[in-house]
Specification:
The protein has about 450 residues and is of the alpha/beta class. About 45% of the residues lie in helices and about 10% in strands. Helix 8 packs parallel to helix 9, helix 11 runs parallel beside helix 13 and helix 17 crosses helix 20. The longest helix is centred in the last third of the chain and has 17 residues.
């Protein structure tokens, strides 16, 4: 395998014109860490057919025999189930920490009877929290309906689908013996056949009796249509005014409430915002213990501390690094995961993230000019964490320790936003927004910066 940083070191095949200006505004006290240039080693040994990698388990998850290899294969499968990072947690037994967030969510719904907006950065655990909350609410006999929003989601479609899951048995006008119940009709049978708005939905849901309904709209930030958001705000207002037994829980990537629901003073009294905070050290330990129990491994204190630092409070990164570090320990037939295994895991993850970037972008990051701009690049990645990558020059200035003004930073960001360059721009009215054209670049920069902090 050709190495990442050897590739970075080579000249780009088609030099990019003027991609980076000389670092006029940013001090270079925070250089790109040297380890990035020496991370990967060439593996040039010839490969025999018998050395080629194979699957370790059957597609049915069955593992043959009671050999040592079979034990290893079982441990790998168990690790994947306990620490795999590609899916949200859906059950309580796999859910670690977050007791306060779950308690606040339950209290808002049960005690305050308000609607809730859960917000935070990507991968912080919003979907996992609402799944476990849904389980918990179902135990208390709530009807919990879950919908994931798409960019082209329509208000009437989503609420028709929700209504289709509430039996007519819970409608005020219906007696248990009426035909609607016998025919197993649901609330959608009361909706007009064509498009409808928040008025019709609140009229219908105000008639829920004998139960309580929670409607979860996950990934609400993906809704691009301003009318949809306005309709949801109006629905929240109407449901609250009528003391309906229906509550909404919205989740989305955002740094604050306004970003997600827009400026809607009329519903402020009726909603509670629940920000998802980074995980604490003991919560990181709790996630890793799920992996320990599954695979019969132990994470040493130094390994836990290192994963916590590198993950910076993200449960996604805790699982990703914990899983990789544990796999490394298994490869080496060790029962204790140590800091060296975590370092290997970080290096592998960085290599993989880099490999997903276009060759042109890898070359850009490898250049001396980008080395000189490193603090700015990292600060920009940090500034974008909370708004799905978007940031303004003022946010970047807040992340930097130097004396650069937002205007000077904006000029540098503009230089990085020429066509085919690292950033893209959104020239909306007011301050222009920027973001990395490839989200992988921001992740790579953030993880590299954590690694550099750790080495210091
Ligand atoms: N409390 C938790 N315990 C264990 N793992 C968790 C927890 N919360 C989140 N995770 C893990 O972190 C990763 C991200 O979680 P999740 O998908 O819930 O985040 P999200 O905020 O919804 O992300 P996105 O913004 O991309 O939708 C998943 O792999 C999930 O399994
Ligand atoms: Mg999610």
């Amino acid at each position: 395998m050709a190495t990442l940083f050897k590739r970075w070191g080579r000249a780009s095949p088609s030099p990019e014109p003027e991609m980076f200006a000389a670092p006029t505004t940013i001090g270079s006290e925070q250089q790109r860490p040297a380890f990035l240039d020496t991370l990967w080693l060439d593996d040039e040994a010839p490969v025999r057919e018998s050395d080629l990698p194979r699957f370790t388990a059957m597609a049915s998850d069955d593992i043959d025999g009671a050999t040592e290899d079979a034990g290893q294969a079982r441990a790998r499968l168990a690790l994947r189930d306990a620490l795999g990072a590609s899916q949200p947690v859906t059950t309580r037994d796999r859910f670690a920490g977050r007791h306060d967030a779950l308690a606040q969510l339950i209290a808002a719904v049960e005690q305050q009877r308000v609607h809730v907006v859960i917000y935070g950065e990507r991968g912080i655990g919003k979907t996992s929290l609402v799944h476990v909350f849904a389980d918990t609410a179902r135990e208390a006999r709530y009807i919990v309906l879950y919908g994931s929003c798409g960019t082209d989601g329509r208000f009437d479609e989503i609420f028709r689908a929700f209504a289709a899951k509430i039996p007519m048995l819970f409608h005020r006008s219906v007696l248990p013996t009426t035909a609607a119940v016998e025919q197993a009709l649901n609330f959608d049978s009361m909706l007009p056949p064509g498009p409808f708005g928040p008025r019709e939905v609140s009229d219908l849901f105000a008639d829920v009796v004998g139960t309580r309904v929670i409607m979860i709209l996950d990934e609400y930030d993906r809704i691009a249509d301003a009318n949809f958001r306005r309709d949801v705000a109006e629905l929240i207002k109407n449901l609250s005014d009528r003391a309906a037994r229906v509550q909404l829980v919205l989740t989305g990537v955002a740094s604050n409430l306004d970003e997600l629901i827009g400026f809607a003073p009329s519903i402020r009294r009726n909603i509670v915002g629940l920000p998802m905070r980074p995980l604490k050290l003991d919560e990181v330990g709790e996630i890793l213990r799920l992996g320990e129990a599954a695979a019969g491994l132990h994470f040493g204190d130094a390994a836990v501390a290192m994963i916590a630092t590198m993950a910076n409070g993200s449960p996604y990164l805790v699982r990703l690094l914990g899983h990789r570090a544990a796999m490394t320990a298994l490869d080496l037939r060790r029962a204790e995961v140590d800091a060296g295994h975590v370092k290997t895991a970080v290096e592998r993850v960085l290599t993989e993230w880099n490999a997903t970037l276009p060759r042109r972008v890898q070359a850009m990051l490898a250049r001396d000019e980008s080395r000189a701009q490193w603090p700015l690049l990292v600060a920009a990645a940090e500034a974008g964490t909370y708004s799905d990558g978007w940031f303004i020059a003022t946010d970047v200035a807040a992340e930097l320790t130097g004396t650069a003004t937002p205007a000077a930073i904006e000029a540098d960001l503009r230089r990085l936003s020429t066509p085919h360059n690292l950033l893209e721009t959104d020239d909306r009215p007011g301050e222009p927004r920027f973001r990395y054209r490839y989200p992988g670049v921001a992740s790579l920069l953030l993880m590299s910066a954590s690694m550099a902090r750790l080495e210091r």
